[in-house]
Design brief:
The chain has 14 helices and 15 strands. The chain is α/β, with parallel strands linked by helices. It folds into two domains: 132 residues, Aspartate Aminotransferase, domain 1 (Alpha-Beta Complex), CATH 3.90.1150.10; 256 residues, Type I PLP-dependent aspartate aminotransferase-like (Major domain) (Aspartate Aminotransferase, domain 2, 3-Layer(aba) Sandwich). The strands form four sheets. It has a seven-stranded mixed β-sheet, sandwiched between helices. The chain is globular and about 75 Å long. The structure holds ligand C6P. Ligand C6P binds next to helix 4.
Amino acid sequence: MISALVDVSEDFPIFNRPINGHRLVYLDSAATSQKPQIVIDSLTHYYETMNANVLRSAHTLAEEATTAMEGARANIAQFINARGPEEVIFTRGTTESLNTVARAWGDKFLEAGDEIVISPMEHHSNLIPWQQLAKRTGALLRYVDMEEDGTVTVGSVQRQLSDRTRIVALSAVSNVLGTINPIREVARLAHQAGAIMVVDGAQSVPHQPTDVQAWDADFLAFSGHKMLGPTGIGVLWGKSSLLDAADPVMFGGEMIAYVDRDSATWAELPAKFEGGTPHIAGAIGLGVAVDYLNTVGMHRIEQHSKQMAEEAYRRLAQISGVNVYGPPSPRTSVVAFNVVGIHPHDVAQVFDSRGVAIRAGHHCAQPLMHWLDVGATARASFYLYNSERDIDALIEATEETKRYFRR
Ligand code: C6P
């Protein structure tokens, strides 16, 4: 019996709300996670007690707000084992973080004929920034071949590397297949080829311990809202030497050292990449989310997310007329599937009528849909508040969908 890792109705107020007359079975955490009460409270606490802009004014509120935001930064740096808080740049999320790397580092260091290696499983946020960078610079995109079950092997990455490779960009966990990519080994190969390693951690950072130094990655992007934090806040982590070498992409207040009428010089990290007023409440809220995750324990969460995904895969695959995508194991947190002959949007609608929230569509991974030879899939995704009872609900909803459309 797989139990939830937290007191669901006590800690997460949304689970006290019935959906269409049923208990909410939330299986869409890969899109965004639900928020614990302490994260919600941290937002109102900031606005009620210390609302002020950061790094600017010299009054009590401004000092408290700055201390709270910088405390969150230090907390997040520790959570991913960064060398220091200056390596943690606050962004709106994974998408903005990856676009920033492409602009800030890519535009400066890529030339015509250079190569960028990615995989067909990438989310559009880890694909289009590289497509656009290639168009701007004349660089070439090279795709790793995936195995039949949708996994990326170290050998398949190696085959695409050359002395022109400058960037290898890979998700640590696929948002459709749930596969876990060998980041540490790929980073080693990338470095041997003279390339940098960019990791899309949108689906990995919420579900497994992250150690950017053990990976020896160069950049890591992730989103607060998928790891119990608020929307609109995320992180770009980078090695400070690379962030120092890269150019800022957002120009304006707080990112400068000195400005005259015709030119400007840049502030030190992290301010150089944080032009404009940041999402202060969001950053504080993400720091609280990290505290909550640490209290539960990232190793326990990792084990739970794997157990849930593997068990859901096993049971869905037993239902006749259901196709499940990716390998049965190892996998984490998500399971994509189709009920043969029924559009995934219709599947999701029947699920919703029973209080079961799943996502249906191409999951912002259209090249992967082409690779799977499907237009779209249904997808169930799990987090620390889900239990085996939710897998039961998933299976019952799938059986009900088949019955409903047979009628
Ligand atoms: N995937 C999903 O339902 P943002 O939107 O910037 O917070 O995250 C983008 C992103 C990047 N990489 C991966 C692997 C992702 O899964 C996501 C977000 C959501 O799968 C929304 S499309």
